Amino acid sequence: MLSGGDYIIDLRSDTLTKPTKEMRKAMFEAEVGDDGREDNLGRGEDPTVNRLEDIAAEVSGKKAALFCNSGAMANLIALLTHCTRGDNVLLGETSHINKSEKAPFMDSFGGLIPRFFVTDPFGTPEINSIKQFIGDDEIKLLCLENTNNFMGGTCMSKEQTKAICHVAHEHAIPVHLDGARIFNASVYYDIPVKKLVEPVDSLMLSLSKGLGAPVGALLCGEKEFISRARKVRKLLGGSMRQSGVVAASGISAIQQEADRLKDDHDHAYRLANMIMNNDKIDIRIDSVQTNMIVVDVSPSGQSAETFESGLLKRGLKVKSISDRHVRMTTYREITRDNMIRAANIINSYCDSL
């Protein structure tokens, strides 16, 4: 809280979303078992986890799913299941897997080798770049991201995904999708998740971003792939016991919160429109597609870190993501009034420079 009594508005990330009362009730009442012990079908013994995995498989249109501690773990499991040490993985240089998660490409850990395709201004891979890499290098896996975190929540369409996957599949290269915010993309295009991800071989979807579950992500794919992934999860220390307690919140998140994400998108677009005409910052309004806004602060003459610090003193938390860019993210707890106040803080701060 600021000295004047106003609360700080926190737009750093949608990971700040809190579980609903319905989620907390579901967690309290969850039927549980030992998810770390496999039954005769190769699945864990926690009935609530199994139900969540079945729901995720249905939503994604895949044959099976695996409950994981986090999106980063689910992505790591996917890459280590698809690949072996020394394999080349083709992905975006600014992708979350490469820029933030990193473990798959550490020599002391995954030992995979990253290769970076060229992207358009929205972070979507250029097909010609993918074709060139596939022709020149021995690529074992192609990784995509939808929505694109560091590009500001931009989306990749069903048609774009299909065309890219077609190129990879022509060369028998599987495609993994980091779908941490795939529900946001689904809402943006107004099509079911399963239609949007149909061409990919595996995907991760997160429960703990805008959906608001306190923890967890699902890795989805074919049954044989998920069976192998389950073994990798155990090797990484990711097996849990009575994890139905947290899985119950994930069920509630998928079933009750996905449609609500449109409110977050509307708030982000509203905020972007209220500040975009300020000549001390630059915003690509066509990139504000979901619940994120990336702001180029270089016209202000300040670094992103300095700009972030200046806004904090006035009651607004944002996140610097490069030397010249800050990111703002909306989520359930951020209201329409918060957006108006945030815009006033940004505009007044810029006017003071």
Automatic annotation (TrEMBL):
<feature type="domain" description="Dicer dsRNA-binding fold">
    <location>
        <begin position="342"/>
        <end position="353"/>
    </location>
</feature>
<keyword id="KW-0456">Lyase</keyword>
<feature type="modified residue" description="N6-(pyridoxal phosphate)lysine">
    <location>
        <position position="209"/>
    </location>
</feature>
<keyword id="KW-0032">Aminotransferase</keyword>
<dbReference type="GO" id="GO:0006545">
    <property type="term" value="P:glycine biosynthetic process"/>
</dbReference>
<dbReference type="GO" id="GO:0016891">
    <property type="term" value="F:RNA endonuclease activity producing 5'-phosphomonoesters, hydrolytic mechanism"/>
</dbReference>
<keyword id="KW-0663">Pyridoxal phosphate</keyword>
<dbReference type="InterPro" id="IPR015422">
    <property type="entry name" value="PyrdxlP-dep_Trfase_small"/>
</dbReference>
<dbReference type="Pfam" id="PF01212">
    <property type="entry name" value="Beta_elim_lyase"/>
</dbReference>
<dbReference type="GO" id="GO:0008732">
    <property type="term" value="F:L-allo-threonine aldolase activity"/>
</dbReference>
<dbReference type="InterPro" id="IPR015424">
    <property type="entry name" value="PyrdxlP-dep_Trfase"/>
</dbReference>
<protein>
    <submittedName>
        <fullName>Aminotransferase class I/II-fold pyridoxal phosphate-dependent enzyme</fullName>
    </submittedName>
</protein>
<dbReference type="GO" id="GO:0005829">
    <property type="term" value="C:cytosol"/>
</dbReference>
<comment type="similarity">
    <text>Belongs to the threonine aldolase family.</text>
</comment>
<dbReference type="GO" id="GO:0006567">
    <property type="term" value="P:L-threonine catabolic process"/>
</dbReference>
<dbReference type="InterPro" id="IPR005034">
    <property type="entry name" value="Dicer_dimerisation"/>
</dbReference>
<dbReference type="GO" id="GO:0008483">
    <property type="term" value="F:transaminase activity"/>
</dbReference>
<keyword id="KW-0808">Transferase</keyword>
<dbReference type="InterPro" id="IPR023603">
    <property type="entry name" value="Low_specificity_L-TA-like"/>
</dbReference>
<dbReference type="InterPro" id="IPR015421">
    <property type="entry name" value="PyrdxlP-dep_Trfase_major"/>
</dbReference>
<dbReference type="InterPro" id="IPR001597">
    <property type="entry name" value="ArAA_b-elim_lyase/Thr_aldolase"/>
</dbReference>
